C-alpha cells in the first residue's frame, strides 16, 4: 500500500504501527496529570464536612450544622465562603488555561505539564500549612493554575502520541487517573477524619503534593509529541520521535507526510484565536463550547465535590458519609474502565447515548426518593434501607457518567481540532469546563437549599437536552486519524454546509493513494 496507509472501516485511514511499550509508558506518565485534578475534586467535599476544619475556618457553618437536627436538611451547609473554598480553584484554572495554550504551542506539551505540576506543589504546601482563610484560598488558586496547565496539555499530548485506532483508549487514561485521584482523596479523607487531634484536614490537603510530585518529575522524562516538534520547527527530531513511538520496523512515511502537511497549513495561521472563529471551524468551535458545558450540567460534581455533605444531608453520620464517597469513588473508577475498553470499538456516540439515558433515569429516581422523604420542608429522616437505595441509584448515575460524559468530555474535544487551532480549541474546552465547574461548585449548596429535591430533576432536564444534541450533531470520530477529521465534518448532514470544498485538504498520503487508484 502506497506510503503504508490503509483505509479503515470508518472510511478514514489507518497508519501502521500498534501500541509500543514506549508510547504506553509515556502515556501513563502523562495521564498522571489527571491525578492532581481528581485529587482536588475529591478532597474538598470531605474536608468541608470535617468538624475541626469547619470550626477553624467556617465557625458559622459549624454552629449551624450543630443545631440543624430536626430542621431543614437542605440548607445546613449553605454558605458563600465555604463554596468559594471549593470553587476558587476552578476560576484560577480557567484563567491559567489561556496562558497554558501559549506555553503548549510555543514550548511544547511537556513544559506545560511541568509548569502545572510545580505550581500545584506550592499550592499543596500552602494549603496543608494554612492558618487563615487567605492562605487557604491562595493555595487553592495555585492548585487551580496547576490544573489549568495540566488539563490543557495532557489530553492533547495523549491524543497526539496515540496511534489513531487506540486514541480513545489511551486518552481515557487521563480520565481514569482523574477517577483514581478522586477515589484516593475519598479514602484519605476517611482515614484522616479519624485523627484524634483534629489536624486530619491538613494531611488531606497536603497530600496533594504526592500526585503533583509524580507529574512534575514524570514530565521531565517525557518526550514531546512529533506534532509539537514539527510545529516548532524540528522536522528531523519529529521523524525520529514518530519512528520511536510507532516501532522500529514500521513504515511511518504516510503518517509523517500527513503531519508535515498539517504543520505547513498550521504555519499559515498566525492568529489561532481569530481563526477558530472562521466559518469552516464552526463545528469544532460549537463542540469545544457545548461538550464541556454539558459535561458539567450533568450535575456530576454535585456528587463528586459534595458527596460527603450530600450524604450527611441524607442522614448519614460523619463516617458513613465519608464511606459513601468511597463507594461512589470506586464505582467511578471501575465504570471508567468500561469505556477504556469499548470506546474504540463501540465508538463515542453509543457511549454518549447509553450513558445519558442511564443518568437520566437514575436522576429521576434519586430526586423522587428524596422528595418522598424530605418533601419541600427538608425535615425528615431516612431509614437505613431507604438511604441505601438512594446510594445505589447515585452509583448507577455515577457509572453512567463514568463511561460516557466523563471520559468523552475530554476525549472528543482533544481529537477534533486541526493542528493550527488545537491549543486554542483545547483552551476553550478547558476554560468552559472550569467555568461551569466553578458555577456548580459555587452554587450547589445554595441550589440544594432552594431547589431541594428538584435539583435532581433540574439536572435530569439538562441530560435530556444534551443527549438529543449528541444524537443530532456529533458525528462518530472513532478510528479517524486526527489529520483527517475534516472529512468527518464534511460528511455530516448539518455541519457540511459550513465547510467549502476548498477547505478540505487531502493529506499527502491520501492524495498519493488517490492518484495510484485513478
Ligand atoms: C470532569 C470532572 C468530574 C470528573 C468525575 C471529569 O471528566 O471534568 O468535573 O468531577 O470527571 O470523574
From TrEMBL:
Tell me the GO molecular function terms: monosaccharide transmembrane transporter activity; symporter activity
Keywords, sorted A to Z: Membrane, Sugar transport, Symport, Transmembrane, Transmembrane helix, Transport
As for membrane topology, the entry says: Multi-pass membrane protein
Sequence intervals crossing the membrane:
21-39, 87-104, 111-130, 136-158, 170-191, 203-222, 285-309, 321-343, 386-406, 427-448, 454-474
Q: Where in the cell is it found?
A: Membrane
- Main localization of the protein? membrane
Asked whether the keyword Membrane is assigned, the reply is: yes
Heme in keyword set: no
State the source organism's domain of life. Answer: Eukaryota
Q: Which GO terms describe its cellular component?
A: membrane
Domain (Major facilitator superfamily (MFS) profile) spans: 26-478
Return the similarity comment: Belongs to the major facilitator superfamily. Sugar transporter (TC 2.A.1.1) family.
NCBIfam families for the chain: SP
Name of the protein described by the UniProt record: Major facilitator superfamily (MFS) profile domain-containing protein
Q: What organism is listed for this UniProt entry?
A: Brachypodium distachyon (Purple false brome)
Gene behind the chain: LOC100822470
